[in-house]
Specification:
It contains 20 helices and 15 strands. By secondary structure, it is an alpha/beta fold. Helix 4 packs antiparallel against helix 5.
């Protein structure tokens, strides 16, 4: 769009008025299309680096805008030709129709995106409202500049007499310049986010300082920090169930594991009745655990695992390891660190830590807490909980998988240090409930079973999921998965290995999304899996439709991972 060719012969005041209409129209269409990209930015926790990676994965979101600009260019070219060789009126009509079509197509794209079903809807928080206001200002300013450039170009070519070719070139150039803001809408959102960074940091810091003040005013409050590449949320709920046998712990109902999440937990959920606070601490970048520990300095630090989760954002396994270790470095002289015996990185960190520490595990030497006589299956788990002192007690829990026994052992080790008896610990373990979307067993009453492990996935988690699935003897085993993400350069290789893990366990595999399906299918076939039992679906709805055609009684269906909206392909 530009100063339409038909209006070049009008008085300057009329041209300015029409330019104002163009600015308003182009800005309105552009702003309406910011919602999709604001949603992507929110899904990436307002972090611009993650947003850029998301844009690379979702290039198709921008392509429809190029078609709209092309329509504007074609329409204006026709209008210019009519204005030169037919009549001004004919050019005006085509220009008006072109502008209306540009508006209609741009708004239709926005409407279709708003109508798309989202797994996690855009939340209009106060921060998002501030960002949206800033985005609108950016869009209006950009559109005004672009239309202004178009005006100058058009005024320049007016002075060239009897030069149809120059006029046509000027119109084409001006059309592209004035319409281009729509094609760059994703970048205007990014620019607005950059402009809002420092003001938002100041706002956040006020809330964080208030949370620190609240924690400092409660010297009686026992503080527990939990981190790990995976297993944090499940461990938090298990520990909460155990500690309730003696204390009144604050166990937040969701994954409040970011600085603002933990701040909100302290400011909005902590009451005088709570004598223990359990802080789940997550990280996607280096030094983020240390930042969380400044808000809630832990007295008890529990490490669940260290793996290559979020390798894409951390950059290396060493960065992941050092960041997770920050929860131990934050302990005071009287603090205690709890490490899992994984015969790998966690054991190395245990040996590296010079403070007061405990080691728990299923097997290994010099353990402080361990399990014997482990039985796992569809019923959950049973085992003997054993302390170094020789005390033991039989335990049962509803949680699926041997890996959950490890999580329980870590919680038991913490609880015993906090003065609970073995009987209280066993009672709490029995009351621990499966966490939603984390190997949650569901019986829909159809004769089949569903294992919902859709929250997240990682290489170690996929092995645990396969172990759980394999325990369902007498069932036909079906896995539905989009694979794993955020593994950087290792993503394709790890998804291929995941395919190989599925091969000896599953009878049917439904792969969701074409990109990661390729390495998973390759891994399945290389491991000898039958090609005819592999199905590829475009999205989860298609996968569910395939499952409906295949389902029969005595199926157990594992949903392994469910990618958020900014990973759909």
């Amino acid at each position: 769009m530009t100063i339409i060719s038909s209006f070049l012969s009008l008085p300057f005041a009329a041209v300015v008025l029409y330019a104002a209409v163009l600015v308003a129209g182009v800005a309105y269409v552009t702003i309406r299309n910011t919602i999709r990209f604001l949603h992507l930015l929110q899904l990436d926790s307002y972090q611009c680096d993650g947003y850029l990676r998301t844009l690379k994965r979702n290039r198709a979101d921008v392509r429809p805008f190029y078609s709209v600009v092309l329509v504007a260019v074609v329409g204006e070219t026709i209008a210019c030709a009519l204005n030169i060789w037919v009549s001004v009126i004919a050019g005006c009509v085509v220009s008006a129709v072109t502008f209306a079509l540009y508006m209609a197509l741009g708004l239709e794209i926005a409407k279709q995106r708003r109508a798309q079903k989202q797994k996690k809807e855009l939340v209009w928080t106060e921060r998002m409202k501030r960002l949206y206001r800033c985005t609108r200002v950016v869009c209006v300013a950009v559109c005004a500049v672009c239309v202004g450039i178009a005006v100058l170009v058009c005024n320049a070519i007016i002075s060239i007499e009897d030069a149809p070719a120059a006029w046509l070139f000027g119109i084409l150039f001006s059309t592209v310049v004035a319409a281009w803001p729509l094609c760059m809408v994703h970048q205007w959102v990014r620019l607005a986010a950059r402009l809002r960074e420092k003001p938002e940091q100041k706002i956040n810091q006020r809330f964080i300082d208030d949370a620190k003040r609240i924690i400092q005013s409660r010297p009686d409050l026992k503080r527990i920090g939990i981190t790990g590449s995976y297993g944090k949320t499940s461990t938090k709920f298990i520990l909460g169930a155990i500690l309730k046998q003696k204390y009144h712990p604050l166990v937040p109902p969701a994954s409040y594991n970011t600085p603002m999440g933990i701040t909100r937990m302290v400011r909005e959920m902590l009451t005088d009745e709570n004598d223990v606070i359990i802080a789940e601490m997550g990280a996607r970048h280096t030094h983020e655990i240390a930042e969380l520990c400044e808000i809630i300095p832990p007295q008890y630090s529990l490490l669940t695992s260290v793996g290559n989760q979020h390798l894409e954002t951390f950059g290396s396994q060493e960065n992941i390891t050092n960041t997770k270790y920050e929860i131990m470095q934050a302990l005071g002289p009287d603090g205690i660190g709890f490490f899992p015996e994984d015969h790998g990185i966690c054991k190395q960190l245990y040996q590296r830590f010079t403070g007061n520490k405990r080691l728990f595990g299923i097997d290994g030497d010099d353990l402080d807490v361990w399990a014997e006589a482990i039985q796992t299956g569809p019923f959950g788990s049973s085992f003997d909980l054993v302390q170094k002192s020789g005390e033991r007690i039989a335990c049962t829990c509803k949680l699926l998988g041997r890996h959950n026994v490890m999580n329980v052992l870590g919680c038991a080790a913490v609880a015993l240090e906090m003065g609970l008896t073995m009987e209280q610990v066993a009672a709490g373990i029995a009351q621990a409930e499966p966490v939603e979307h984390r190997l949650q067993l569901i019986d829909p009453g159809t004769g089949s079973l569903v294992i919902d492990d859709a929250f997240n996935s990682n290489p170690t988690g996929t092995q645990a999921a396969m172990d759980v699935l394999a325990s369902f003897d007498g069932y036909r085993k079906i896995c539905i998965t989009p694979g794993m993400v955020e593994l950087g350069a290792e993503e394709e290789r790890e998804n291929e290995k995941f395919g190989a893990r599925m091969a000896p366990v599953c009878d049917i595999v439904i792969l969701v999304g074409k990109t990661r399906a390729v390495p998973m299918e390759r891994g399945l076939l290389q491991a000898g899996f039958d090609q005819k039992n592999i199905f590829i679906a475009e999205n989860l709805d298609d996968a569910s439709a395939i499952l409906a055609l295949l389902a029969r009684p005595r199926d157990v269906v594992l949903f392994e991972n469910d990618l958020p909206d900014h990973y759909e392909q």
